[in-house]
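Work Package 3 (structural annotation) set out to generate three-dimensional models for the target panel prioritized at the project kickoff. During this period the team completed the workflow that converts sequence records into discrete structure tokens, so that structures can be stored uniformly alongside our sequence database. As a representative example, we reproduce one entry of 178 residues exactly as it appears in the project archive.
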Amino acid sequence: MVYVNRYSRDLDGRLYVTDAPITKSGVFFYRASELKDAPRGNPSRTVAVFRPSWEKKNAAASFRNVPVLSEHTAQPGGPIDRSLIVGVTGDALAYKEPYLAADMILWNAMAMDFAFASKAAEQLSAAYSYELVWQHGSTFDGKEYDAIQTNLQGLHVALVPYGRCGSDVSINRKVSVT
């Protein structure tokens, strides 16, 4: 199946996006300093973190009507600088392995230009609160990890130059889904 985002604009110029992949499951790499409750040690060391599909499915509803930001806030879960808000996710969310997809509305012309014409904000990155279970293991396809993200709760989605999930998590991309 080919998973294609669809777009439309209203008379006021707002951009409506359908089925944009906002995050995905898998093993992703973080600096230890980026993770809450990281064990002591070198804060710049790389930590492999597993985001299981079942946790993304459970978190889907928490991404309803969250802000879309022009960049990530410094402290996810903290107060959001209102000048960064360029849109909002909608009510329609779906988990299509390995992606969590959402409808969204962008109402800021600069954000629309970035999303389509610029390298400045070509990808999407979802922010959420979570709990980490520090447990070494490997996924069914052999990818090793140091911790598992659980109890995810959506906070916002940001337009970013390069997201941890890769170029397939973007407003303006086609994504192959099996």
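The longest strand covers residues 144-160.
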